[in-house]
Every structure is written in C-alpha cells, then in structure tokens.
Amino acid sequence: MKRVLIDDYSDQLKKTKNNNHYSSKFHTIYDSDKNILYEGEMEDDKRHGIGVCHNIKLKTSNTNIVNYVTTKGIFINNQIKYGFIYDLNNFLIYHGSFKNNIPNGSGCLRIILKINNKDKYYYFKGNIKNFNPNGLGIICDSQNKKIHDVNFKENNICKIIKTYTENDDINNANILLSLSNYSK
Asked: What are the sequence ranges of the domains in the chain?
C-alpha cells in the first residue's frame, strides 16, 4: 500500500503574510474557515523549526482513500525533516526521518498484516522508503513486543529472519539477572 502526503499550505502562507497576521517567529496559519493548518516556527515565510501541521491529506495510491492526519516535527526550509504522523484518533502512524516531506530513512511505521484472515496493526521499525517498509527491520506489536526480524522488499515481507517467543523474553531477563549478580 503506497501512501502519499499531500501538502496544500503554500497559498495560505502567502495570504497570512499579506494580511499581516504574524509578527514573531511562532505563527498560526488558518484556512478560510478559521481551522488551524499550521502552528509553529517560521522563517522567511516558510515553516522552519518546530511545528505542527493539521489536516494533512494522506492518500493511499492503491485505493485512493484520503484520510486526514497531523504531522509534528522539525521543519527546515518548508520541509519536515524528522517528526511524527498521527491519525485523527491520535494513533501513531509514523515517526522518524523524512525526505521531500515523505517518510524516508530510519523510522517506525504502523503497518497492517493479515494473520488468520484478519487485519491486525503492527509497527515496523527499520528502514522506510517512500512511506513503506524497505529492507531489514523488526515487527513489534502495539505494546512494543518484538514479533519478527524481517526483510521487506517492495512493501512485502520477503523473508522472516527470526521469530520471537515468550521464552526469548524470559531467557533475556535471566541473562541480565545473572550478569547483574556477576558484577557484584
């Protein structure tokens, strides 16, 4: 499932400046219905510094479904470089690096896996390319418990490298406990 962020703020930035609505480094940009579009730092009429974009359109290319999300992060020259994407229910969709306003690089992405014919949400922690898992990473559940070490290619799991079990957690705890006793 390919996702695309659509950012429609450039006209609003011009309107806000022309109406002299801001005078400090922190700004709030509204749409014509007085809904907040952006709150944060700006420099030279561009988002620059820490900020929050509201009601960003998030479109999936294979279904053309549009959802609205909030992005929070660090902006440089009008582009988010590192940050978070939340859905309108405040569930984390992504956190990590961005390139050209699209999640790219190291990050954590909420994904849907079909298990026993049921869709279930998980998180992929690893390399993200164009808003999709790509390469080596870890799949975790919503409680951050490791499920699998995997290799993704073109948004599909091409190899499960390791599957974690309850015993792995117990063994790791026992190793840490024995190491802490050894250092006394």
From this structure: 1-90, 105-184
